[in-house]
């Protein structure tokens, strides 16, 4: 229901604002503002995006919770889409989302309403897979301990290629 209202109200608000601003300053200055905000917004999205990407890399390197940097990156991406959409209302929301204090407030608001059931980084235990179950025949020395990190258990199968085709594929005929 909220999405339907947004798709209904946002274009109506934009049309109203275009009429008001265009009537006050004229057509060409109005169009120049729309183009200028798109160009300025793109530059700001790039710089804020680089900062968010750096924060995300840092959280992955330190094995800390990447939820906040990921949320900031998603909000910056959404801000970029809003800034490229012609209009004053969408530009205002887009520029607001590019401000870190606004993104922090939005993240805190959303994080209070979202419950994370489980979060795990790094190697975990192999629940439900005992020796002889799963994809392979199990670890040769018993089940590997959780967090061993140095041992990667895997299976392989040698595949011999079939005889090469004389035509490029089964759909077309080769050279005659």
Protein model, in words:
The chain has a domain at 9-112. With 176 residues, it is mainly α. It is built from 5 helices and no strands. It has helices spanning 2-25, 27-61, 67-84, 88-97, 100-113.
Total DSSP helices = 5
Spans of 5+ residues with little confidence (pLDDT < 50)? 125-145
Strand share of the residues? under 5%
How much is the radius of gyration in Å? 27 Å
Round the mean pLDDT to the nearest integer and report it: 79
User: What is the approximate shape?
Assistant: extended
Helix content: 55-70%
Structural category: mainly alpha
Cα(first) to Cα(last) distance is: 62 Å
- The ordered string of helix (H) and strand (E) elements is HHHHH
The total count of strands amounts to: 0
Largest sheet: none
Helix and strand arrangement:
Elements: H1 2-25, H2 27-61, H3 67-84, H4 88-97, H5 100-113
Helix pairs in contact: 1-2, 2-3, 2-4, 3-4, 3-5
Write a brief structural summary.
Helix content is 57%, strand content 0%. It has helices at 2-25, 27-61, 67-84, 88-97, 100-113.
């Amino acid at each position: 229901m909220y999405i339907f209202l947004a798709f209904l109200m946002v274009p109506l608000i934009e049309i109203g604002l275009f009429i008001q601003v265009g009537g006050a300053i004229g057509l060409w200055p109005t169009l120049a503002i729309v183009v200028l905000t798109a160009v300025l917004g793109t530059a700001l999205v790039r710089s804020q995006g680089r900062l968010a990407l750096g924060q995300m890399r840092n959280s992955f390197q330190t094995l800390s919770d990447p939820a906040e940097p990921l949320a900031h990156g998603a909000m910056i991406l959404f801000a970029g889409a809003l800034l490229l959409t012609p209009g004053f209302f969408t530009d205002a929301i887009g520029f607001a989302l590019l401000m870190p204090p606004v993104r922090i407030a939005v993240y805190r608001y959303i994080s209070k309403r979202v419950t994370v059931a489980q979060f795990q980084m790094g190697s975990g235990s192999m629940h439900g897979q005992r020796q002889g179950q799963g994809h392979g025949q199990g670890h040769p020395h018993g089940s590997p301990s959780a967090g061993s990190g140095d041992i990667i258990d895997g299976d392989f199968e040698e595949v011999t290629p079939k005889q090469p085709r004389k035509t490029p594929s089964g759909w077309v005929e080769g050279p005659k």
